[in-house]
Known about the structure:
Elements: H1 16-34, E1 38-42, H2 47-60, E2 64-70, H3 78-89, E3 93-98, H4 100-107, H5 113-134, E4 138-142, H6 147-159, E5 179-181, H7 189-198, H8 203-206, H9 226-245, H10 248-251, E6 254-258, E7 264-268, E8 271-284, E9 292-293, H11 298-311, E10 315-320
Parallel strand pairs: 1-2, 1-4, 2-3, 4-5, 8-10
Antiparallel strand pairs: 6-8, 7-8, 8-9
Helix pairs in contact: 1-2, 1-7, 2-7, 4-5, 9-11
This protein binds xanthosine-5'-monophosphate (XMP).
Xanthosine-5'-monophosphate (XMP) binds at residues 117, 163-164, 166-168, 210, 212-214, 218, 254, 288, 325, 329-331.
Amino acid sequence: MNQMTRPETMLRITTPALAQAFIDEQITQIRAQVGSRKVLLALSGGVDSSVVAALLIKAIGKQLVCVHVNHGLMRKGESEDVIRVFREGLDANLIYVDATDRFLDLLAGVSDPEKKRKIIGGEFIKVFDEEAAKLSGIEFLAQGTIYPDILESIKAKESGKPVKSHHNVGGLPEDMKMALVEPLKFLYKDEVRVVGEALGLPHGMVYRQPFPGPGLGVRCLGAITRDRLHALREADAILREEFDNCGLAQSVWQYFISVPDMKSVGVKDGARYEGWPAIIRAVNTVDAMTATIEEIPYALLHKITQRITTEVPGINRVLYDLTPKPTGTIEWE
Ligand code: XMP
């Protein structure tokens, strides 16, 4: 039976030396578990799956097959980063699937957030399954499960309903017959990051802010359209760039743009210009159950507004969400 609790003797991984000891131990364990067989991993580009990929590449090299599914709801440059870091940097056996059209076609006209989540999660599994079916000799499935995931699922089972169906894209069907490889399953997030840095992953990838599995799909509010999704992606990239430039990216827990499905009247070059508003949200939290608002300096808000309204076609206003959680959830959908 799989062990479900962190061993009491396990030291907290806080230093590069402790991370290295963990990595060495895991390499031995993974090699013993896998032998010369093959392992499949859904590599989203998030912290956990990226660290698992880097660890497995160290342990078993090309016996690891990574599949990166671009559902068309990634942030600007994210899929490109995955390819650059893993295929070009670490020589990973990486299959890249651009499934943008499949996802966006299925989502067309769907405005209910929970339906959107279900479509995105379900289609993700389908695409991933199709890729897995093309491969032969895969006996293991690697997952970026971390200790809070285990604790949360135990809690959820015991106590009932979550507020949103936090379907982690990458969740897998129960009838999968492969054995699991979950080298991070007893680590907390901060430990995963220390291990990621010790493995040589880029700082930006290891300290990436949390990003929901359904991605920009729950930030392009209501029924997703390609033009509004594009505007959202560009506006979000500007927000991230400005937060990076002034150091806020390191201290703010989560910051992003949402774009609602409504237009307001504006004016551009002396003419009426109807456009969407971009809504900034920047929050701090410990466990995402409650959250407080980051007080973004006015000059920065002004600069971000100026850039978004001039650089992003379709956006004519920028709003700043001041609502803590509760009453607002972190995501708008
Ligand atoms: P809420 O909006 O519930 O979000 O306050 C709490 C945290 O969870 C993230 N989130 C999701 N993560 N799939 C995910 O993997 C989802 O469907 C999902 N919805 C929200 C959100 O970004 C925040 O970090």
